[in-house]
Amino acid sequence: MAQTTPNHTMTVSGWAAHDPSGKITPHTFKRRENGMNDVTIKILYCGICHTDIHHVKNEWGITMYPVVPGHEIVGIITRVGNNVTNFKVGDRAGVGCMAATCLKCEYCKDGIENYCDQVQFVYNGIFWDGSITYGGYSEFFVADHRYVVRVPENLPMDAAAPLLCAGITVYAPMKDNNLIESPGKRIGIVGLGGLGHIAVKFGKAFGHHVTIISTSPNKEKEAKERLGADDFILSNNSEEMQAKKRTLDFILDTVSAQHSIGPTLELLKVNGTLVIVGAPEKPIDLPSFPLIFGKRVVKGSMIGSIKETQDMMDVCGKHNITCDIEIVSTDNINEALNRLVKNDVKYRFVLDIAGESSKV
Ligand SMILES: [Zn+2]
Ligand SMILES: [Zn+2]
């Protein structure tokens, strides 16, 4: 196990959950020493993702306790291994969800290693050396350099952190559907939360007409005035839904609560695509008629490759795109997780691991 792996000699302070109560407490643990292919990162900030809640409470039944969550990690590189040529000490670095992949399968070779079936995540995963991975709710991180990206100099580190999961999750399907360099499309975003708000920013930066599709009427003002969305459809109002039939080229569905996608599909033009990135626990209700009568496509997408993640970071640097965040001190992790369960955040919590914000 991790604690007894011979080269795991680096003592790191972090925060972990120890049982399904999900309560987070300070936790000291060991990481591997910086290897030939590794970089060590002094973590400045780590975003809090809904996935962290699923893991600390063992809601998917796969948690190995103690679990140190966190996969939206940004910080400064403090060590580089002998084989590492693309990073140096002092660089601004980011680590997202992936810790390792097989490097040999067709997906790894094609540069879509996020779909490798051996993918191991940065926490609650099993690294190549057999150790359990611990995430970014900690002061230092050791990463294989192949799973590290650089954070552009002009982006604030705290607001850039959630790009590593929330950002890439919405960027990759937009790129996949040719929305990066072909402006003027009409796109819909279902749900205005951590994922949805950043999708609006990408959509506008790429020159599209962006519609928010939501069950909350009070989000219309916010969507249009603060985030710059062009239109808003109240999805539980059937007249509005009917009036907007066949108006959209592409829809990104970010909602993880149970919902029917049949009426949403009707909003797509013929040949339109709906991509699911929210993950409801139960199977999705998918009626066949909207698919057949509109030749529509429904597909999924999971984060992005490291190359795509770096491309996204660079695009964010170019367009000055960051997430809207609320900074949380490490004393208030449990409170933030409780608020996140109730979706009480605009739009992403970011842990101030190094106490940087209190120094300002
Ligand atoms: Zn995440
Ligand atoms: Zn692979």
Count of domain modules = 2
What overall geometry do the principal axes of the alpha carbons give?
Answer: globular
**What is the CATH first-level class name of the largest domain?**
Alpha Beta
Spans with pLDDT under 50 lasting ≥5 residues?
Answer: none
Order of helices and strands: EEEHEEEHEEEHHEHEHEHEHEHEHEHEH
> Can you summarize the main beta sheet?
7 strands, mixed
Structural Rg: 20 Å
Using DSSP, what is the number of strands?
A: 17
Q: Beta fraction of the residues?
A: 25-35%
The CATH topology assignment of the largest domain is: Quinone Oxidoreductase, Chain A, domain 1
Bound molecules: zinc ion
End-to-end Cα distance, whole Å, is 40 Å
CATH architecture of the largest domain, please?
Answer: Alpha-Beta Complex
Helix content: 10-25%
The number of distinct helices, counting runs of at least 4 residues, comes to 12
- CATH superfamily membership of the largest domain: Medium-chain alcohol dehydrogenases, catalytic domain
Overall pLDDT level: 95
Query: How does the helix and strand content classify structurally?
Result: alpha/beta
